[in-house]
Amino acid sequence: MLLDATQSQLVLIDYQTALMPVIFDSAFVCANAIRLGQMAALLDVPAWATEQNPSKLGRSVEEIGALGLRTLSKMHFSAVEEGLGEWLRPPAKPVVGNARSLPKHLQRASQEPLHRNAIVLAGCEAHVCLLQTALDCLEDEFEVWVVTDACGSRTERNRDAAFDRLAGAGAELVTTEMVAFEWLRSAEHAQFKAVHGLIK
Predict the structure, then answer these.
(1) Which residues contact 66 (CB under 8 A, 6 or more apart)?
(2) How many CA atoms lie within 13 A of 102 on its CB side?
(3) Cβ-count burial 63-74 (b if 16+ within 10 Å, e if not)
(4) Is the peptide bond before 125 cis (omega within 30 degrees of 0)?
(5) With 90 as the cut, is the pLDDT of residue 198 above it?
């Protein structure tokens, strides 16, 4: 099973100014998150960000903020508890019409976009906000893909424990380059050169 850019959404979790300095290997983790955001923009993949208690942990680091993503401020560790699920899978719009509306079989097909069910997650801390958000997304029947080299915790042990638990729960563990090349699928993709330039 490969990631499909047309079925994917990206969520970048809590890359915040007061948190990143204490994250293990934070420069590497943050650089990969930025790459993911840039690739999503190039490939028309919807992308979102979250911020945990921004009055205490600060806003997103400058480079993440510069991506211009719609950002969910939250107090729950799981972003799903704060409404992320509605962003990822908006509720269906009610059917409008009156007594003179056409019968269903004569109506045009719905113009609403199909839901993108593959959620690509990356963030901090891996064993807290990322883990709880991912588990809730799985509970809500999304496919969850966790980008391991764009995730961090204060300690390697906590980060790795999160990956073990997520794999056991059914999440796919991937890397930034896996996401890039699966979203592209071919060296003939119109954005191949631009995406390849971000990761080489």
Answers:
(1) none
(2) 6
(3) ebbebebebbeb
(4) yes
(5) yes
**What is the C-alpha separation between 44 and 72, in angstroms, rounded?**
20
Mean pLDDT of 134-150: 97
Q: How far is CA 69 from CA 37, 48, 64, 101, in A?
A: 9, 5, 8, 39
Kindly report the number of other CB atoms within 10 A of residue 193's CB atom.
9
Which residues make Cβ contacts (< 8 Å) with residue 136, sequence separation at least 6? 78, 79, 80, 81, 85
Nearest residue to 196 (alpha-carbon basis) of 9, 186, 29: 186
Structure tokens, 111: 């113009």
- The pLDDT tens digits of the residues spanning 151-164 come to 999 999 999 999 99
Q: Count the helix, strand and coil residues of the chain and give each as a percent rounded to the nearest 5.
A: 45, 20, 35
* Dihedral over alpha carbons 127, 133, 138, 139 (to 10 degrees): 110
- For residues 182 and 165, what is the distance between their CA atoms, to the nearest angstrom? 24
**Quick count: other Cβ atoms within 10 Å of Cβ 96?**
6
> What is the separation of C-alpha 83 from the centre of its chain, rounded to a whole number of angstroms?
14
DSSP 59-121: SB-HHHHTT--EEEEESSSSGGGGTHHHHHSPPPPPP---TTPPPGGGSPPP-SPPP--EEEE
Q: CA–CA distance from 38 to each of 10, 16, 31, 115, 156 (Å)?
A: 11, 18, 11, 22, 26
Give the whole-angstrom CA distance, residue 119 versus residue 35: 16
